[in-house]
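#help-structures

NK: newbie question. if I give both the sequence and a SMILES, will the prediction place the ligand too? trying with magnesium ion
OV: yes, paste both and it writes out the complex. here, I ran yours:
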Amino acid sequence: MLDYDGTLTPIKTRPEEAKLCEETRRLLKKLKKKTALAIVSGRSLEEIKELVKIKNIVYAGNHGLEIETGKGKFVYPPALEVVPIIKGISERLRLSPIKGTQVEDKKFTVSFHYRRVSPQEIKDAKSYFNRAVSLWVREKKFEVRKGKRVLEIRPSGWDKGDALKWIWTQLGKYLFPIYVGDDRTDEDAFETLADKGLSVLVARRKKRSFAEYHVRGVKDVERFLEKLFIVLNQVDGGRKSTF
Ligand SMILES: [Mg+2]
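OV: that's the protein plus ligand as structure tokens.
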């Protein structure tokens, strides 16, 4: 299970610029033939599928609120109820007077990016977001998640850790899970995995994390996946283990 932004592609100033390079796509396609593969992203399901463009793998969008396995689609039920509220919040966020903010309406969640906001105005951008969502957060139906230069409001009760468990159950509990990710939302998955699988944090510097292992960047993730491919090839002699 792999996160996308900051794990398979370097983080860009504008999220739409983070494209998967052909080499990585080829590597993922090779891996898919050997084992079950899932992309678990904060982006919408539709968008992450479009960015990765590999058939017959698992996709989890919105940090796992929506998952597609090839056999079917799952949406965390409370997420369906919040669609109109999310729409209202994103309209309000779009009125932000702070230069450089970017709103990403993902149907079940909204992201408020401030990567391009000048350092002096970051505080204002954050408080604008907090004011816009405060009413909903107080209701406990929603929660705010912080990422790399991004704030997100989402229905509470389901995160990447829950998505990991759901995917693992679907694919087969006999599988040994591996999760690679770079952001705070990935910590939920690392924590869920604990001693049950292998967790890898992508970060330039080592930091406090629930992940057991650490690599320094996207290039290291590629190297890790290449090694994994070699190991899988040796272990099962080229037979695909599932899916
Ligand atoms: Mg990420």
